[in-house]
Amino acid sequence: MLFRSEILRMEARITLVKLSEKDPLFFLASETEPLSAWDMANLHSMLSKLPENQIPDFSTWLQSGNKSVVLFCISMIGAFKQHEATDVLLRMVDNDDEAIKYAVIKALREMGSSKAEEKLISMYQDSSPDIRHAILKSLESIASEKSIPLYEKILRGPVPELQDAILSVKALLSLGVRGKNIINDISDLKNERMMLVIQHASDARL
Question: Above pLDDT 90, what percent of the chain?
Fold first, then answer.
């Protein structure tokens, strides 16, 4: 439930965006209150209606001390595919904050940033389960054959996490003959659990 003060802040932000054509998000530079999910959704909705030349460079506010502003800007970089911010995001992916790390990985996926592939592969082993899953979802979209050894290692491991195994199979299926050959080799091992994973991942309806 939103408190009256939060509603007033949200309405004030919306008004500022509507009134400022040249710099609709200027208030982010001094924003100290956290942006709620509702704030972010409303701002995104309004920004999506602006002409392309009025969409701001969201990397401007990535150094903000307000974590919610940083998360919002990372999300908008992905949503508006601001590829010029790729190098900044690749540096931020080493951030100790899991929420920021997760948001960066998602933004890189939305941008289709093949430049991120090697970095994401190198991060996988030492990452938390949630970040590993985010990495695999991103690699499924941007991966080349460079990612095949990682997928194979996951699938040949003792007990791969189910969702990670499914994403790995899907990615291999998208990587042509070499990927399909690895899946066939793993199928030949007659591991019942892995056979179910491959069957599930191969179902085009899912």
Answer: 52
